[in-house]
């Protein structure tokens, strides 16, 4: 990466880190662009080189954080060459992401407030750097190497995301109705049920009467 590009990336990441800490500490509504640039130590004009407004940086922040968490889990998966089945790989990534979130409660609070499907779709195509593929690219590659074919794979991902995010929030933050480790086996079973529902190669034709 050229020095100029590296400096630009550093400034952008500094703004994102600043926004993250301020959104957590003060809340989104009470944080201004002036607060973000002051905390990041950059000029206000620099902000508008990368983001349109406060809502834009929030959207980019969520995509950035979601991508970071996924990329970390995917790198962890690469160390387990024995996990070759697509469904087992998704379960591994899911567990690793939940463990990361359990160790970063501020991130849980940010994502739980704003990580709608629309935001998540944006993060699917977010490319952290020239050398790092997007979540969508990785997911597509994993699907192509799966032992089964699936109909509506995007809808399948949506169902899994909604299930995991909807049930894990209280378990991570409040250990309710059960703690995360007790919840995981139930999530595994439910996610595998979703996989079974979307397996295209297991659909049989209904015989004519």
UniProtKB/TrEMBL annotation:
InterPro entries: DNA-bd_HTH_TetR-type_CS, Homeodomain-like_sf, HTH-type_Tx_Regulator, HTH_TetR. The keyword Methyltransferase does not apply. It comes from the Bacteria. Gene3D superfamilies: Tetracycline Repressor, domain 2. The keyword Repeat does not apply. GO terms for molecular function: DNA binding. Keywords: DNA-binding. Signal peptide: none annotated. Residues 9-69 form the HTH tetR-type domain. It holds the Pfam family TetR_N. Residues 32-51 bind DNA. This is TetR/AcrR family transcriptional regulator. The lineage of its organism: Bacteria, Bacillati, Bacillota, Clostridia, Lachnospirales.
